[in-house]
Amino acid sequence: MRLKILFFIIIFSTFSIVLESQNNLLNLKDIKITLKNDACLTINQSSPNAIVATENSGIVSEGDLNRVAWKINNSTGTYTIPFWDTSRIDFSYVIKTPGSSSGTLIASTRRTNANNQPWPTVSPAVTHMNLSVSPGVDGSLYVVDRYWVIRNEGWSTKPDATLSFTYRDAEIASPNTINESNLVAQFWGPDPYSVPSDTNGWIPDAFDVFQGYSQPLGTVDAANNKVTDVVPPNAYKGGFYTWILVDKSHPLPVTLLYFNIYCEGKYVALKWETASEINCDYYLVERSTDGNYWESVAFLQGAGNSNEVSTYSWVDSYDGKGSTLYYRLTQYDYNGDYEILGVQSIVCTNLPEDSWITINTDIFNNIIINFLATQGEKYEIKLYDLHGKLIFYQTGTTNNTYEHLVISTYGIPSSIYLVDVHTTIHNKTQKVYLKELDF
Questions:
Q1: CB 277 within 8 A of CB 310
Q2: How far is residue 221's CA from residue 255's CA, in Å, rounded to a whole number?
Q3: Torsion over CA of 15, 16, 22 and 24, rounded to 10 degrees?
Q4: What is the mean pLDDT of the chain?
Q5: What are the pLDDT digits (tens) for 217-242?
Q6: Cis ω on the peptide bond leading into residue 204 (within 30° of 0)?
Q7: Looking at residue 13, what is its pLDDT?
Q8: What gap in Å lies between CA 274 and CA 225, rounded to an integer?
Q9: Separation of first and last alpha carbons in the chain
Q10: Would you say 327 and 344 are in contact if contact means Cβ atoms under 8 Å apart?
Q11: Between β-strands 160-166 and 226-230, what pairing exists: parallel, antiparallel or unpaired?
């Protein structure tokens, strides 16, 4: 029969409970349901109106695995789970384009200490609260003291959804240093642009051009303690990740595309690019001959605030005389915070330009290419016939500072060909004659 209990607390512990009342309606009129010991409350009704709650009622989760599982299937609408702590903290999942049938939304939430620990262990498990590329500074005091763990089951095609999160005043209070008007959403998930590419992190930063976003996720409604209109990036459709709310003035300060060093004769040149910058004051370049003692050698002005690609370069006039030199790049914010973006090493000698890339053939008519480059530098090799037709193409990234490549010419007719070799810094084009073999 239909639930009509007033001012009552129901505790579900350890096992799963499926509620299918008469008329398929869970009516929480002044009722609080508490989930404990990894209990799961299943709503076996796809209607957005399957849960009815008053201001004095709700579902107490307060644990990553104390979950509500709502069997939505391929329906649409606004699905609101009336989570409860000391007051209503609704989580809303608005489906505009349905997912495949069958599908279940699984959600839980819990408050934390000011340092946001313990971190959620639901896969993929959270491993840090750094809001910058490692090594970074702990940003937990800029994060609301609450997690939302959103997962699904059965959706082979995920729905297009907009998420909304409710928080409590106590969860942004001191010792947190949160400007409530700056709150936006971030989630913990796989970052395809990290190294290695399967590394998880907090996504996206405020100007994360990689994810196709130029703005943070969501809009804060401080009067009602909510962040609404959170639309996950296309690569993370459905938003089935672990979510936080964060002060958007403290996301990733610089999105670094690359940091390379290379030789210009006997001198070292540095080049780096950023995809975005937030409050970036300047860059410090340091040099070392042993990798331990560092000397400041250059300061370059940063772009301040930018969501466009910025390119920086600098040439060191120091002569290393063929010894190994180390370079460290550090970015500084206006407030004095800093982050080491990378360390590179290199050996430079005063070689002529033609010595950087050599192109020859061996006794078997194979093309032999040797070149010097910075480790991790991109290269591109093309082979053309006399009519300009491309008959061979290879691209890659150097594993060593000295690369030795062999291009097999088996089956290529005897003739004159043009070999074009490009690295990030140097390039060379040379004719080679591939002749008939006598054996």
A1: yes
A2: 28
A3: 160
A4: 83
A5: 899 999 999 999 999 888 789 999 99
A6: yes
A7: 59
A8: 35
A9: 93
A10: yes
A11: antiparallel
Which two three-digit tokens encode residue 98?
């349905």
3-state secondary structure of 63: coil
Closest C-alpha to 358, from 429, 425, 424: 429
CB 29 within 8 A of CB 55: no
CA nearest neighbour of 289 among 264, 257, 330, 319: 319
Give the SS3 label for residue 13: strand
> Encoding tokens for residue 269?
């040149």
| Predicted local distance difference test score (pLDDT) of residue 195 | 41
CA distance 251 to 205: 5
Rounded CA Rg of the chain: 29
Distance CA 65, CA 323 (A): 57
CA-to-CA distance for 57 and 4, rounded, in angstroms? 13
pLDDT, mean of residues 82-110:
95
Contacts of 17 (CB under 8 A, 6+ apart): 39, 40, 41, 42
Half-sphere CA count of 429, side-chain side, radius 13 A = 6
The rounded distance, in Å, linking the Cα atoms of 313 and 270 is 5
Burial of 110 (0-12, 13-18, 19+ CB in 10 A): buried
Number of other CB atoms surrounding residue 293 within 10 Å: 10
